[in-house]
Automatic annotation (TrEMBL):
The keyword Transmembrane helix does not apply. One of its GO terms (molecular function) is RNA binding. Residues 143-164 are annotated as: Disordered. Keywords: Repeat, RNA-binding. GO terms for cellular component: ribonucleoprotein complex. The keyword Acyltransferase does not apply. This is RRM domain-containing protein. It comes from the Eukaryota. Residues 170-258 form the RRM domain. It comes from Manihot esculenta (Cassava).
Amino acid sequence: MFYRGRYPDGGDGREMGAKRQRLVDQGPSFYGTSTGSSFMYNPPPYGYVAQPPPFPVVRLRGLPFDCTETDVAEFFHGLDIVDVLFVHRGGKFSGEAFCVFGYPLQVDFALQKNRQNMGRRYVEVFRSKRQDYYKAIANEVSDAHGGSPRRNAPRAKSYDEGKDSAEHTGVLRLRGLPFSAGKDDIMDFFKDFMLSEDSIHITMNSEGRPTGEAFVEFASAEDSKAAMAKDRMTLGSRYIELFPSSMEEMEEAVTRGR
């Protein structure tokens, strides 16, 4: 693991990366040397007096299923990457990952990559927190050693639980569509539901090109909730993420692309 910088609460990125590697017995990391030699700005150590610097971690969503650490390193080319942690659910890659950097300031540079493409998929990049990264490590370690499902352990709502508890209004947002997908493809994807072309809205960017997202109006909130069973199923060669949405969000997205 490569690392520069230290955090005043006792743990640093180098130690965290090595500790995770030992726990899950995955062998040496891809990052044997610095990926940040071309990064033009290496800030001095943080001079915080009242509080420590924020932990430099981001969460990525929408990664290709065949994504590797090398792909993430190339996506964040020029930044000092300490660790990449891919998130699995039920033994399968979820399309999400955590990426830890050498300096807190590098998170700002990483966020500039939000909604840029990795291969044929655009990737969302969010700020994250130390505790979320630690929790993901704990889950990975437990899964790697055949741990219990932690049914009784108190935990925050997961991303999937947030979807399950969201209010349904009859509108779903689709993310990760092939850019060539048309309304017929989406109707076929939801072939168990009665849809018309008028109920499907493929969003465009300011240049008139598909964004990889669409909104679908179902006959009822019950239908849209039932359609969530198709979440992360494939259309062509790509898996599609589904999110409960609303008429307001749909209208705003459609208008933005006009």
